[in-house]
Amino acid sequence: MTTLQVHQFPCLDDNYGYLVHDPASGLTATIDTPDVSAISNALKEKHWSLDFIFNTHHHDDHAGGNLELKEKTGCTIVGPRADADRIPGIDQQVGEGDSVMLGDWKFNVHDTPGHTRGHIVYHCANAGVGFVGDTLFALGCGRLFEGTPQQMWTSLEKILAWPDDTLIYCAHEYTQANARFALSVEPENEDLLIRSKAIDAARAKGLPTVPTTLSLEKKTNPFLRPTSLHLQQTIDRVGENSVDVFARTRELKDHF
Ligand code: ZN
Ligand code: FE
């Protein structure tokens, strides 16, 4: 099997666009549609044509370019069944347990409500990559606009079940600000201290901190660490269950 190619580019203020390309079939998908001109330029630069849009959720910086790109390219739009009425131009509705193919590459779909009620993520196990939209960020997680902490924690647990070396492609470059919060709740986490220095160095050079890996997130992302005693102590939730620790962590971040 040839490799699955992921072309990443920054767009809007702090979004990432992703083109996913299968050289064997020549098929290309964009993960979400944050910025039509940036996506069109990336397609031109790579000499790829667009076959699919894989939407993660309905927000404008994720599905706002759907109709224009569909008009331009005739691509097929795949998106969350649970939010079909809010995904412009949706052709194929998917949810938990479904999969979508890009050539021979299979992307498993998971429902991950929390940030929005219909958020989904795409996991290609054979390529070792996951596109998580605004559910999980490097050192962070999405704000709970339309879901409860219990829903979001259950969503994050689905991602936690992927292999540790999975490359996590999230939709925003929020890492530096996330690191400041993470350090405030786990100030003695050695892995986090080391990582935050590396993040500052990368950003000083204008380099992306995305993709990340699930293993690195498990060691440093406070939203995935409700069982950390250090975290529990800092936020005054020792011995509480994961949902309650997660909920408190999210609440603190909202007011950080
Ligand atoms: Zn969003
Ligand atoms: Fe977003």
Outline type: globular
Question: Termini, distance in Å?
Answer: 46 Å
Give the spatial strand order of the biggest sheet. Answer: 1-2-3-4-5-6
CATH superfamily of the domain at 5-170: Ribonuclease Z/Hydroxyacylglutathione hydrolase-like
Which structural class do the helices and strands define?
A: alpha/beta
Q: How much of the residues is beta strand, in percent?
A: 15-25%
Structure, described:
The chain is an alpha/beta fold and 256 residues long. It has a domain at 5-170: Metallo-beta-lactamase, Chain A, CATH 3.60.15. 34% of the residues lie in helices and 24% in strands. The protein is built from nine helices and 14 strands. It has helices spanning 36-46, 60-63, 66-73, 149-160, 175-185, 190-204, 214-220, 229-234, 242-254, and strands at residues 5-11, 15-22, 27-31, 52-54, 76-80, 92-94, 99-102, 105-111, 120-124, 129-133, 136-137, 140-141, 167-170, 212-213. Strands 1-2-3-4-5-6 form a six-stranded mixed beta sheet, covered by helices on one side. A six-stranded mixed beta sheet has the order 7-8-9-10-13-14. Helix 5 runs antiparallel to helix 6 (190-204). The structure holds zinc ion and fe (iii) ion. Fe (iii) ion (FE) binds next to helix 2.
Structure characteristics:
alpha/beta; binds fe (iii) ion; 24% strand; six-stranded mixed β-sheet
Brief digest:
The protein is an alpha/beta fold and 256 residues long. The protein has helices spanning 36-46, 60-63, 66-73, 149-160, 175-185, 190-204, 214-220, 229-234, 242-254, and strands at 5-11, 15-22, 27-31, 52-54, 76-80, 92-94, 99-102, 105-111, 120-124, 129-133, 136-137, 140-141, 167-170, 212-213.
